[in-house]
């Protein structure tokens, strides 16, 4: 069950307007037959170019992993000269169907991460569905980890410390981060050492309609109609929302109790319809014997942290910074 919250989220009208616009973009691009108007979605997705010159103490560059997919990432490099700086591998949201590592909002978010933590941020540009369904996104995410492990000296600065590596993502990107963590837990990596996972309002689901999904069914971005369409476009043919990729703590869940799954922080918003699934994920990790922390923002909507005008967005960055610092202090 969701926690008690005020009748309406505490956000300004400008943010509400932006949410309405973003929701409309997504709705206009999704077709009833399960296809997507990719040309329209790309046209409406405002993008930022990489900039080798530091802006707010962070420079950016794009690195190709596999041109045939195409798979690449944007590297955010802080000007901090500390000898050992952690690496944060980030997966953007967008319901597996739209947005990219170059999207203006995510470029700004990753730039803030790189400056505030500080960290080298690797923002992964993975393939999108429905053109590329499950498990393409998970393949791309894990292949970036292996690429960094194999090409550490050629793609990262000398003070980028892969032994202090964190996975992070929001919404669908947090789902992706979870599944990349599962793969990494069972695969030998020479240099990459995962110290933690930052799961920001992860996009999970199931056949059941939870209390929060029913109560907040008309919410922007992640209404049940939108999420049902996304799962249908993403999941393998013939499967339902209880598939292990969506209902990660459900009847088909992978047993993580014996895996070296990283310590995890789960972020939940009180006006996010997905919050019940997110809390179940947190509780499942704890029951599986894993270290997990729950951070609640009772008055916040899904994806609140991409809106810098919200005080909670800055609070979350500080909370994530504390999580990273605490994990590093234990090694």
What key phrases describe this protein's structure?
eight-stranded mixed beta sheet, 331 residues, alpha/beta
Describe this structure in words.
The structure is a single chain. The protein is of the alpha/beta class and 331 residues long. The radius of gyration is 18 Å and the shape is globular.
What is the gist of this entry?
With 331 residues, this protein is an alpha/beta fold. Helices cover 36% and strands 20% of the residues. The chain has 10 helices and 8 strands.
Helices and strands in order:
Elements: H1 13-29, H2 38-44, E1 58-66, E2 71-78, E3 85-91, H3 104-116, E4 120-125, H4 136-150, H5 152-155, E5 160-170, H6 172-185, E6 194-200, H7 211-215, H8 224-234, E7 263-271, H9 275-287, E8 292-301, H10 311-329
Parallel strand pairs: 3-4, 3-5, 5-6, 6-7, 7-8
Antiparallel strand pairs: 1-2, 2-4
How are helices and strands ordered from N to C?
HHEEEHEHHEHEHHEHEH
Fraction of residues in helix? 25-40%
Tell me, briefly, the overall form: globular
Average pLDDT: 95
Taking the alpha carbons of the first and last residues, their distance comes to 36 Å
Query: Main β-sheet, in a few words?
Result: 8 strands, mixed
